[in-house]
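Lecture notes, continued. The same structure-token format from the folding unit now serves as the input rather than the output. Read the line below as a description of shape only.
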């Protein structure tokens, strides 16, 4: 049995958080003992681990400056589980995984889910954490990236782990599938008629996702055809989100724009859309695009991260930060016949089932973690790719 302790800030809604939950609950119980340790408890995704055999532990961090007591709790809780591998997920959790893994004689794996970060949009702590991680990476046994773009960008930034893998995100294709009944229910909830074009952005309202580009493209489409409707699905309670709501583009859309907030009925949400948009500047492997594809919803994406490789020829790809090109692509997509769009959607699902399912994610990750747990003490560097 391989004992794995995952470490993450929280299990609030988010693409990386959902990937961790799916991985933890699906690792074979006859081969793995799994625990998930969160800095903060009460995350919305925590119930998904109930009854799965995964041990969920909150380290009860009291806030940003709760350091000494938090580190003591983390050291004790990891030590009690005697993991073979401590696996961090994202940012500071990765750095802490290195510290705790080394302290308890475990192998250390990092999960890196982004391609790159525009530090000008965040406070100093993000840059400091990134630089610290780059220096620490040479002492990390394994980094698992979710995209080729992320691996390449981090190598350019000085990341030099002892080994690395690229394992794309996985989609639960049994959960994410076309839901025609849900489509009608959600569209009615948002005031969209059966035949009104509905274009959506599914993402947390964060600068990295460039929602202002989506809104600018939506404003262009609205000016061309006032009958179109638009929706933003995702957490939108930040000051940044509040400023977007008051932007000229958002105000020009009026009642044709819905701010739906976070949702739990995502297969119905994706099915409700006629086109999903990814407007991001930077991405790794975008979960929303893969999930929408599994629900047979055509996608228009920017050339961010591995999104072009994800959609292949089933969607349309435009440059980043180009709202005019984004609007043109959406118009082109919705100008196709319903039969042509249905064929696109079916091809998209087939692509996800074949290349980006959760089963593939779990199988590749299980193999990597077992190999890591059994690895000798050699520190020789090796570069590998999942499936190679």
């Amino acid at each position: 049995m391989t004992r794995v302790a995952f470490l993450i800030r929280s299990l609030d809604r988010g693409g990386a958080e959902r990937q961790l939950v799916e991985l933890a609950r699906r690792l074979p119980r006859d081969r793995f003992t799994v625990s998930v340790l969160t800095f903060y408890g009460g995350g919305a995704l925590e119930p998904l681990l109930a009854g799965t055999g995964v041990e969920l532990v909150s380290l009860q961090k009291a806030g940003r400056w709760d350091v000494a007591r938090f580190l003591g709790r983390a050291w004790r809780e990891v030590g009690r589980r005697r993991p073979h591998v401590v696996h961090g997920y994202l940012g500071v959790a990765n750095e802490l995984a290195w510290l705790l893994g080394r302290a308890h004689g475990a192998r250390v794996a990092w999960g890196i889910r982004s391609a790159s970060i525009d530090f000008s949009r965040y406070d100093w702590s993000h840059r400091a954490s990134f630089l610290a991680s780059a220096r620490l990476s040479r002492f990390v046994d394994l980094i698992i990236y979710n995209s080729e773009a992320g691996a390449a960008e981090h190598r350019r930034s000085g990341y030099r782990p002892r080994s690395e893998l690229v394992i794309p995100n996985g989609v639960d294709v049994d959960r994410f599938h076309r839901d025609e009944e849900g489509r009608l229910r959600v569209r009615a909830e948002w005031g969209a008629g059966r035949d009104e074009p509905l274009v959506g952005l599914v993402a947390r309202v964060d600068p990295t996702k460039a929602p202002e580009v989506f809104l600018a493209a939506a404003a262009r489409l609205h000016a061309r055809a006032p009958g179109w409707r638009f929706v933003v699905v995702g957490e939108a309670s930040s000051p940044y989100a509040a400023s977007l709501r008051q932007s000229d583009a958002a105000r020009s859309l009026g009642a044709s724009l819905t701010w739906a907030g976070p949702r739990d009925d995502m297969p119905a949400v994706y099915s409700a859309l006629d086109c999903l948009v990814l407007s991001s500047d930077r991405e790794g492997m975008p979960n929303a695009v893969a999930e929408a594809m599994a629900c047979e919803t055509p996608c228009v994406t920017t050339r961010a991260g591995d999104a072009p490789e994800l959609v292949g020829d089933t969607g349309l790809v435009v440059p980043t930060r180009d709202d005019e090109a984004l609007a043109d692509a959406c118009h082109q997509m919705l100008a196709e016949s319903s039969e042509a769009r249905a064929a696109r959607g079916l091809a998209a699902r087939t692509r996800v089932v074949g290349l980006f399912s959760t089963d593939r994610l779990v199988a590749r990750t299980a193999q990597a973690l077992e190999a890591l747990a059994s690895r000798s003490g050699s520190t020789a560097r090796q570069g590998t790719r999942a499936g190679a």
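Point for the exam: The chain has two domains: 2-170+357-374, 180-355.
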